[in-house]
């Protein structure tokens, strides 16, 4: 079986297991290439439909094209689109771009905290109203018990230790030293009240696999990943104050695949443009134990 | 190099025998690390006044680096001239055996490391045994740290002889024994001058020599049903049967059988998203199918082809189990068994023998402690469809869930006869020869807005089940449903006139067959019988192939209450209880639309 076919089949299997086992299931969509591939895989799994809400954590510092792309796709595919945000921190200007806190603390505030409270329903969720095209405050505050996340094992050290189905305790903590066994495609689908499960359908994919698959399937993806004439493109997307484009003239998925296989990026880590990684001692473990994606 | 081929390899062995170091070395020597990674870690070590180790490339967690051990399996990718590899670094400490197993279960082949100086240790053997249980047949053994024994051939040969014997006892024939020093880079990605007496392949060559095991396309079709989807609200009327083909092949037009329900249909189409339509699918593919005749099948059933060798169906089986639970496995606790996509409550009926996997000593014990392996007889609450693991690996193994966690893995050695075996065989023949009219089950279901359902009221004598049953029948009828009350007494003096009252099983069987006819006619059958026990209920479920069997228990617990779908309080008004039953029928979608 072809490598991409095998990866696709396993991801579809995982998504279907998640759908069968969790009543309050959602998928985190960061608008980046990985979770956009994951969205595509969900449509493969469910006859072209996405039978659960997509959740985006909007830090308000996302590159603006990302939000435009999110809403365009959400409307086009009729997605059940939900976003969450740390309104309080933004109102108090308690962020890194405002100069009040460092990068890691800012990630914790705008991403990790917003994610935790959006998933648990402590903070309001904003749901796309397909009639008006606007986001309304969502009535539903029930906690999500299954959260599908696009993490890949090859991204950085702590992600390489993840399970496909990975439990998080009441405070969203990840007990990495004591993870439940996972074998023969039997996953952790039983969990104590108050806890939730992170589901990782893309764990075995590499950055190269992702781009080969985008190319093969012709998946619509935000054009921030492509050079539009200035010799720059993003390799990894995030908040604009902390994410830098890379020097590259790749304009299509095919050119990116070539660049990753043999070109200039074949030997440079993907997240090298993400400043918060460096401040966490070369890995994201501290952030991730706390619930970072 | 074949970019399209990937092999998953796990590195196992006793703690501190150098697994992470070997992988780190392999990554460094094959030049696949990102620029600056090696320098970054060397710099980190210098800053923290620590000697650099290749293992730091793998042991990413802070606890792992500070304790110098691997805690959880890590994955990393590398490439040889031949293909891509996913390397899984498994922890060697006994405390983390469950992590080793989680890592190894994903692998197709394994490298097992033994420290030349320390020799064969407890976990060298235990890990070897686990590989055999996990079904990993391609194994190569590296005798590591040869530099510490001055590259002495005698040390290597002694380990080779002893460990080969152990592996042969557990049914593994190693593909190679390689003397290496991961720290010094001897025989890792190139042959070593220090080991000039060794003429075999180095590690990288051995990895490349492992053959990709083909997916079991030649075997009988097995597809565990993951779900049956209908996205009507999204404007899609297809009824999609979703699952992954674990073995075999299927074609549009094939007659398929779902087990244990024994329902049958014909594959109408293989539905694709963003791909050309196809009339053929094979092992490894996740597919969505539609069926010609709409039958009501559920997640958990195993789909096979009528032409293929059928799986076993029983509630009783013999299996070898390795236990990873925090509390011992025992015969007085209920667990959950998960096999394919089915999930059933299970009891350990008996523990036949318990094995210490580190020395292969077997003993008779009352419990199975953590990290032990045991041969057990298991009794599932309902029959399940499965294979023997020697015949079909993926449908021949299961996990046991204790409380919230997977705590054990098992491979099935034998299907044992349960009490429903005879009835199951007879029903199988009945179904094969069943002659249908021109009105299909779906036609009836749509016309009547109901799915044929056998409602069984159970409970001790004296709780007045009959009155509730009759009230349910009446209320359904008044609401325009096709319902029918069936008391076992009505059969006793008619169909059963030729048998004596003592032939309990035969009475129940005939009651079930009559109900099955009424269900085939599309009715909601409300049945009662006094003193039905769990075996009777199982027998009735075995016989009913036309709809759901929905069990309602009335009154005090009597053994059948824990297999019931709904519990009713005998003290409540009949009216209240009847409404509760009907409410459930609506919730379950057994009655709809009207």
Observed structural traits:
heterodimer; A: 293 residues; alpha/beta; Rossmann fold; 10 strands; globular; B: 594 residues; Elongation Factor Tu (Ef-tu), domain 3; 4 domains; six-stranded mixed sheet; 14 helices; 30% strand; elongated
CATH-defined architecture of the largest domain in chain A: 3-Layer(aba) Sandwich
Percent of residues in helices of chain A comes to: 25-40%
Strand order, sheet with most strands of chain B: 2-3-1-4-5-6
Q: Which architecture of the largest domain in chain B does the CATH hierarchy give at level 2?
A: 3-Layer(aba) Sandwich
CATH overall fold name of the largest domain in chain B: Rossmann fold
Low-confidence parts of chain A lasting 5 or more residues at pLDDT below 50? none
Major sheet characteristics of chain A: 8 strands, mixed
Shape of chain B: elongated
Write a structural description.
The complex is a heterodimer of chains A (293) and B (594). With 293 residues, chain A is α/β, with parallel strands linked by helices. Chain A has 9 helices and 10 strands. Chain A folds into 2 domains: 3-205 and 282-289, HUPs (Rossmann fold, 3-Layer(aba) Sandwich), CATH 3.40.50.620; 222-277, no CATH class. Chain A has an 8-stranded mixed β-sheet with strand order 5-4-3-2-1-6-8-7. A two-stranded antiparallel ribbon of chain A has the order 9-10. The two termini of chain A are 31 Å apart. With 594 residues, chain B is of the alpha/beta class. Helix content of chain B is 26%, strand content 30%.
